[in-house]
Write the structure tokens for this entry.
Amino acid sequence: MKHSGLLLCSPGRGLGCVACCPPIRPAGYDHADHPGSLRRLLAENTRALREQGPPTKPITGYWCPGLGFLDPSGRQAGCLLHPALNQGQDLRGPTGFQEKCARESCPPARAFAALGAGERDALLDLCEGLESLAFGSPRLNPVMRLLAFGPEVAACVAWLGLRRREDLAAWPWLGETPPAWGWLLARRLEAWGEAALTQAGLAQRLATHAQALARRLGPEPPMEQGQPLHTLCGEWEARAWQHLSGRRRVRPADLARWREMV
Ligand code: SF4
């Protein structure tokens, strides 16, 4: 978790995310599935830090004693050991996770950081009033699901000027489409227009296109050939090709051929 108004972890407006804290969780784990026990732990940590000072022992299990509430109402959770809250002093060392926490990032956070200020504002407007466990939950916060598709798709949605989070949550494609197809969706929107995002059949339309494209890419070669995808193109494009082709590497000439097909 990081602190800065530009970062999704702590974007201001009383919003905050602790979804990756601590950075040791089972796949698919969502804090929002355990609101009662976690809220109790957050309150206990906050009190313990105030009364006894920062923890001195390493984290054991899946829970970090440095997580607590940043506000008296108990809506905004965050890292109480972070240097931004301790006059520049980083108190995370004894947890054993300082380095991992400092470099932790997620696709929604990277997409958010790549947006313009107006686009970030438009998406945060849709998050208004969410407490931290809900804000960081892809299940409860459609903006988190949207950002996982990458900055291009998220920017298109921001420009649509939605006023209510419920309107975004009601779009079927947001739950039915693999986020890894975000780059491909952005390319299709160039032809279909941004209004396609609001149409009921978008998930099926994109799936038909993606499956046809995947067939044209051909079967996986017995041994991976070429260069790592992420060295030949950006994160979001690499992720789309990896998902569609099943390959992590590609020859530059093949990538050029794939791009022609889109
Ligand atoms: S899950 Fe992403 S947005 Fe949330 S605290 Fe971690 S890096 Fe930040």
